[in-house]
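Hi both,

Apologies for the delay on this - the queue was longer than expected. I finally got the S-adenosylmethionine-bound model through. Below you'll find the protein sequence and the ligand SMILES exactly as submitted, and right after that the structure tokens for the full complex including the ligand.
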Amino acid sequence: MTSEKKLEPMPDFHFKCMMWLYKLADPIWNPRRHIKKIPIKEGMVVVDYGCGPGRFTIPAAKLVGRQGRVFAVDIHPLAIKVVKEKAARKSLTNIETMLLDSYNTGIKGSSVDLILLIDALHMITDHHALFREMHRLLKQDGIIFMDAEHMKKSRAVDIVESTGLFTIVERRGKDMLVAPKAER
Ligand SMILES: C[S@@+](CC[C@H](N)C(=O)[O-])C[C@H]1O[C@@H](n2cnc3c(N)ncnc32)[C@H](O)[C@@H]1O
């Protein structure tokens, strides 16, 4: 069943704490190094789902280059504000920010090569709605790179498999590559 209720962002204070935690952790757990594990190529259309403060949006935008595009989507206004500021500071014109209040992104169907769902699955309240939307967005040979942060790996696997829409094609630790099933 589709979730009709508007999605509620976390309180601003929590979002700011999260940004500080990332600032502390990122010199050790470097997102730029982490992104090397992601099959991202020049020219790709990428959706950074639950982009937060853009830890992955910015490196992804640099990697896809001018021919590519990154949609940075989030339900939190601060996420959108921070990503816009970072993109402007770095003169990145290939990032489109989108503030959502539902699982409908409004992005054209079958147009996306890669979806990043990083450190976000644990915050999703309606898994079926999210995975249905991601299935709609992806090209047939598109892929999701996701992780199982803040949950057991087996729980993330169960969530993906219960949707019936995706196949897990690769697992590396808590990271997974997930491909859409052909049935549309
Ligand atoms: C823990 S942060 C991770 C941010 C980013 N992916 C990273 O790894 O740096 C999770 C983000 O997902 C966003 N979020 C939660 N539910 C969402 C939803 N249904 N749609 C889009 N974004 C969502 C939150 O607002 C938050 O910014």
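Main takeaway for now: The chain has one domain: 31-180.

I'll put the files on the shared drive as well.

H.
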